[in-house]
Amino acid sequence: QVQLVESGGGLVQAGGSLRLSCAASGRTYSIGDMGWFRQAPGKEREFVATIRWSDGSTYYADSVKGRFTISRDNAKITVYLQMNSLKPDDTAVYYCAVRRVGAAKYDYWGQGTQVTVSS
């Protein structure tokens, strides 16, 4: 089992910035990738960004590329999502997730943190 705890959400004006954190505990040796997803009201959950734990390689959704940055702290087993130039369309509940090494999908999820961007 891997436990994930997110923090850092809140209310911000359009154009502002927020940084989300996700701390992992438990069987962290099994982490292959850590990612961020989001779900807006009435919409399906969508991928935002991911980072490969072994080498730090990253991948982003087109909608956030150039504005969001995912990073990790190996010692703290924590992943961050720096969100800049926020837009009202970024409003959603943001979830941290883990895909274990060799797993086909993300199978551990945090509780989510609300991000609200006002216009």
Note the run of SSEs as H and E: EEEEEEEEEEE
Number of helices: 0
Whole-number radius of gyration? 13 Å
Q: Sheet with the most strands?
A: 7 strands, mixed
- The overall pLDDT, averaged over residues, is 96
Distance between the termini: 40 Å
Assess the beta-strand content as a share of residues. over 45%
Poorly predicted tracts of residues: none
Query: Which structural class best describes the helix and strand composition?
Result: mainly beta
Written account of the structure:
With 119 residues, this protein is mainly β. It is built from no helices and 11 strands. The chain has strands spanning 2-7, 10-13, 18-26, 31-39, 46-52, 58-60, 68-73, 78-83, 92-100, 108-109, 113-118. Strands 2, 4, 5, 6, 9, 10 and 11 form a 7-stranded mixed beta sheet that branches. A 4-stranded antiparallel beta sheet has the order 1-3-8-7, with no helix packed on it. It is globular. The relative contact order is 0.32.
